[in-house]
Amino acid sequence: MPRAPDQQNAPVAQNGVIITRPPPGLAPTMAAVAGLGWQPIAASMLHVEPLSLAPDTSRPDAIVLTSGQAIAAINRPAWHDVPCYVVGHATGARARVAGFTHVATAAGTADDLAALLRATLPARGRLLLAVGRGYGRDMAQALRAEGFRVMRRCVYAVRPGQRLPTQAAQALGAGQVAAILFYSTRTAQAFLAALTATQAGLLGQVVAVAMSAGVANALATVPAWRDIRVAARPDQAAMLACLGNP
């Protein structure tokens, strides 16, 4: 009588996609990747700690956000009518849901955001630049040099993960990962730093999908990738187009 096939020796489907971004963007990206027919695998490589904005922070002429992570700290009902300038469409959508009524959206990068401010705020008003700890210094200096009064406030802190989450590590080790999505340079750096030598050796079968050329440059420090693809625009729709279907 024929013996049943050994399940441990059966071919492994390579349809897993590791998503390295932190919440709250992680969940909608997981859903979008699943909608394309892939198996999404959560692997947040940055851990975000909210920080408080000082209660006596004065009302700005405009709020500037380089990340949606800052929205919780600056979400004061009395400020909902303050013009809010954000880096991209996802952050803009979150700002509107939070209650901000005047949201202007840049094309996806900090440079795009600075250009939007220069084009639409000729009066050089007082800006609240709400960022993560260690972020936004160059942008604040550049805007000040152009006459803006910038209050740079750190409203969250980011800590890199020290190792791959268990599910992602297991899927990579089993050859089940086809691609990995990277939405920021720091996420890419944290992911690479967390790899063991064995895990790094497995990347030759994996496609890296980068949101921008800067992210791709960070990934290129490990030459073993099957391929590194760069999204045509720094947004999720372009990232998913770059990923494609299984």
Summarize this structure briefly.
The protein has 246 residues and is α/β, with parallel strands linked by helices. It has helices at 26-35, 71-74, 89-98, 110-120, 137-145, 166-173, 185-194, 197-200, 213-219, 236-243, and strands at 16-19, 39-42, 46-50, 62-65, 84-86, 103-105, 126-132, 149-160, 177-182, 207-210, 227-230.
Explain this structure.
Helices cover 33% and strands 23% of the residues. It is built from 10 helices and 11 strands. The longest helix has 11 residues, at 110-120. The radius of gyration is 20 Å and the shape is elongated. Mean pLDDT is 91; it is low at 1-12.
Keyword list:
246 residues; alpha/beta; six-stranded mixed sheet; five-stranded parallel sheet; 10 helices; 11 strands; 33% helix; elongated; disordered N terminus
